[in-house]
Amino acid sequence: MTETIDFTAQTRLVARLAARIGDGELEAPTPCERYRVRHLLGHLIGLTTAFRDAAWKNLGPTTDTSPTAALPDVPADWRGVLDRNLAELAAAWHSPAAWQGETRAGGVDLPGAIAGRVALNELVLHGWDLARATGQPYAPDAASLGVSYALLAPSADDPGRGPLFGPAVPVPDDAPLLDRVVALSGRHPSWTPPQPG
Known about the structure:
By secondary structure, the protein is mainly alpha-helical.
């Protein structure tokens, strides 16, 4: 029996964060250096599309394109698109078939069981990015945080961990799990938007 991981709590949390973002916040900076909020939302739309299709094993342009191929942006109807994508993503990974065999995302072939964990981790980290950029509270469920921690911790000291994450940031051993996950991704848990001027 293939283990499945429930995305529902995290996809709903990201949807709530996005729903509270006003048009005037789209140009706000985020913890992702190259991204404004609009780019982060565009990236979320792209990754939810790619990982939904990866779960369905519907391989093609959405799963073959590297996330660094171009600076993402939001379409005019981004709220509806993101909300729908998040719901479809949760439903797609609810199926045991999604976790079996091989699939592809971001142009990388990988087992479905790994792709699902990568997808959930992306939602956890970018949910934090979005919350920090827009001044919203953020409290992912413990199960989702546990998946992220288990995915990120083994590569924390690996200098070849790839371009998606920076070097792990030191935090106290007794830091909250969210802070440890954020730090393992190369982000500073204390990040706040720079003050104007």
